[in-house]
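ok so heres the complex, two chains, lmk if somethin looks off
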Amino acid sequence: MAEPGPLPPSRDPAPAEAGADFLTFVRRRPVYLAGYLIVGAVVAMAVVAPLLPLRSPVDANAGVYLVAPSLAYPMGTDTAGLDIFSRVLHAPRVDLAIALFSTLLAALVGGLLGALLGLWDGRPGLKGLVAILAMRLSDIVQAFPVFALALVLVAVLGQGVPSIVLAIGIVNIPVYLRLMRTQTLTIRTQPYFEAATLAGAGDAYALARHVVPNALAVLLAQVAGGIGAAVLLTAGLSFIGAGVRAPTPEWGGMIANGFQNVITGQWWPSVFPGLALALTIFGFSAIGASIEAWCNPRERTRTSRREWAAFVAAHRSRRSADARPGAATP
Amino acid sequence: MTVLGPILFRLIAFVPQLLGVILVSFLLLKLIPGDPAPMMLGPLATTEAIAKLRAELGLDQALPVQLWQYLVRLAHGDLGRSWQTTNPVLTDLAIRIPATLELVTLGLALALAIGVPLGLAAGRNAHGRVARLADGYGLGAGAMPDFWIALLLIYVFYTLLGWAPPPLGRLDFAVLPPDRITGSYLIDALIAGDGATALAALGQLALPVATLGLTSAVPILKMTRTTVERLQDSDFVRFADAKGLSPARVSAHVLRNALPSVVTVVGTLYGTLLGGAVLIEVVFSWGGAGQYAVSAVLNADINAALGFVVVTAALSLAVHLAVDLISFALDPRLRLT
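and the predicted structre for the whole thing:
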């Protein structure tokens, strides 16, 4: 809990926090903190699930058909008699792996391409022309609805995990391309960059020394949120049967499996994997949002709600009618 | 440049965009490993039919020639045949797209009704109760997969409460569909003056529209809110506040100025949902273009799958065009640049 500062509350930088580091920043914002905790838990689950004393996530036991959640089966069993708890814990192995690799693919290819296009933008000759044409191509790829394009890519490439990784990666390339290009265009106008250019820096040096380090945080924010979106896309593809195939534990596929049961009243086969999926997506987007806020000076120094509440509580007695919080003049 | 210049330019730009979409779909076709002809005709094709299609596609010719032939076929509205339905893909899609459009349009209308007022109120008072509510809503609904929300809604409103009809398509089997005019059962029934059928169609629409509305409201809410927050600091708002206008009237002014960004985000959502409502369609057996595409993909019906993606991309280009034209109308400054 923050100590009440000596100055009246405002949206301007609070001196108490001016030197705070990223950890404190996150710790003071429960939503961001929750994001890191959830993602940490999900990653841990993916790593240790096979080591835990759980029932097999793929070997069916037809004797325990659609058992409601109980002590023996914390999340119940599905129509095939599979232990849902074990399957929910094993699922991130597939979901996270696909999301991670496809996002890395998109971020590496899209990011590098975007940075190059940003450097080449407006240059005479072939490079300038390539910069224009590539942006138009990226526009066109973005005209395709994301899910439809991923679906058709899987159809075209053939079903299987590598195809899903590739499909989700390709669909997301334009996002990173656009982001890095905008970043590069901004960095290009900075004096340090102009100085480097005047000193004779080439494209490769400029990329490595100036563009990548300065754009990294923004790129990371997008990557974190992007992994969540990729998990959702993976689950969506599996939900309709175009993604990860049945016995492999995967959240989207599990939700689809339990669909008929939900209609007849057995909610557990679908609700638990959906909950895990929603929490995971939330976790990644909270991490993305935390990095984004940290990169934005106004957001970084904004008094968090918790600090605000502490301040208001400490000053309630002294507060007069005209010093209402939120009415601070800019 | 005259006022008409940018508008004309935007209209002309549609043509290369459409050509680009076609080029990308051609590349997708070329991505198919091996020989596409047997895949297009399906498992029941004869050897002669495959040989004939191979010649028609010009697979033995140079790539530019193939692309040209592809363009000529598209210009004739020929997206190939679906081997599953044995109909031309364009005919199949023409029957199903109105169902998808009906769903997506109503879903977005609901999303607007939720997102804009919430975003406006949250943006106007960044520390108020509504802002907290909006924060929570954005976090909650923003992370939940739409197909999962659909399942929860079915469980609560159909299984538990019995208020909603079974999630089995656009009309109950016992109800006769109205004469086809627009392809939307709701509108067609209303045109025919058949209240009971319209009500039945509306009942079927309720849950899928609620799902789309609840999830799509999140980006609309966020966009409205950030735009309104930015406008809060602008001179005209401060002036309006300073001269003592009622908060409601200031809100009206702010809303008017936030409209262009709301329209933009709705356009983007519309484009995404044309392809993304696929999951909702599957959950509710909607029988629209999305479900058609899923069955095409699962059964390696390449013509149908590619046809779907080309048509939805073209539709979303058209939506973006419409959005830009509406933005021109809403924001006079855009017309001058």
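quick notes: Chain B touches chain A through 59 residues (CB under 8 Å). thats all i got rn
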